Amino acid sequence: MAMRISERTVERLCVYRRILFRLQREGQTHLYSHQLGKLARVSAEQVRRDLMAVGYTGSAQRGYEIEAILASLAAFLDVERVQNVALVGVGNLGRALLHHFKGRRPTLRIVAAFDADPEKTGRVIDGCRCHDVGELETVLREQDVHLAFLAVPPEVAQAVADRLVAGGVRGLVNFAAVRLSLPAGVFVEEMDISVALEKVAFYAGRGSEAP
Amino acid sequence: MAMRISERTVERLCVYRRILFRLQREGQTHLYSHQLGKLARVSAEQVRRDLMAVGYTGSAQRGYEIEAILASLAAFLDVERVQNVALVGVGNLGRALLHHFKGRRPTLRIVAAFDADPEKTGRVIDGCRCHDVGELETVLREQDVHLAFLAVPPEVAQAVADRLVAGGVRGLVNFAAVRLSLPAGVFVEEMDISVALEKVAFYAGRGSEAP
DNA sequence: CCCTGTGAATTTGTTCACAGCT
DNA sequence: AGCTGTGAACAAATTCACAGGG
Known about the structure:
Chain A contains eight helices and nine strands. By secondary structure, the first copy, chain A, is an alpha/beta fold. Chain A has a seven-stranded mixed β-sheet, sandwiched between helices. A two-stranded antiparallel ribbon of chain A has the order 1-2. In chain A, β5 (124-125) and β6 form a beta hairpin. At the A-B interface, α1, α5, β7, β8 and β9 of A face α1, α5, β7, β8 and β9 of B.
């Protein structure tokens, strides 16, 4: 599976997958590219290109078979393999993440949380043990963790990120308001809430921009 | 100020602004494009193009003057005008947002929260009054709110979003795992945590992709 | 028909390369 | 020398437009 695939495409594929799951639960079995496009807010051509990328082919008369796309997507996105996730920073946001991932999405689950506050360490929150951040590398190794959520204050984000990488983390979602500097090969997804709001504020003013 | 400006550029400008603020607090007065680029994880050419877009011009010998860029950025991003923000959904994530924006960034502040749970309504959390979601439109009008965070369960996200728009909201940050369908002219920024993690999981596997 | 798959064209975004300045 | 500003080249992403098929 060496095909070059863009970040945007991967995002859309994840969105499609979620939509198709829902439709499947609701009993639907087939749909057309333009229908999926409408639900994902994407053009029909885009949907077709994206599905081409995962190697799935629909039929012209019945469109796409939901079960079959889901299978292709699962194979392509490698969703079967269970991947353990760590969370660093059990503040409000960290707890929101724990709560959000509790139970569901069994193949991506938060198996360990970390915080520096002794008030929090030792406890179990939403089914997840909270360790002292000092044990970071050890626990990551023990639990075979290679992914992480970083939800710590910006001042310590870089230091914690370095330790995550030292502990074997290969990809992380960064909520801290800092651009991290990490070795190539470590994938960082920025989730910058302040920037998101500023961006919305910027575009919300000006009438009808479709930027 | 009719110049077309891309979403990516606006994001980067917000990041620059934050970095420059920090440098300014630390007493630095000038920097070069490649320095800012390093801090923002962006190429020097990109920085220069972006700053060109806001109409700021540096000098070749001293580089950019931090105070002056900040002034240009403030003018361009329209940061002086105070804009009130609403929050719908006072769960874990909602509280994280309230906490995050408490006090700081005085020009973008959460002035009203909403929830359906009577346990939460009527209380003041992190300095923000929590109203019953039934009063949504009224309070938005009263408080002159045109921006919002949407942090409600996916099943109700579309309905709430429609009401936000009816109440005068022109832009929102959506944390719910649904693609919203809103009239043109309303700007939506998707903050999809599950997709972010799935994306990271996808790329974290494959060694050194720079996608 | 109305679908899918896909070359070709287009638009958008980024980097290269260098002129001009001090 | 080393910087900025920017045309030109390049790369990426998206849309157009249409062939092919039941």
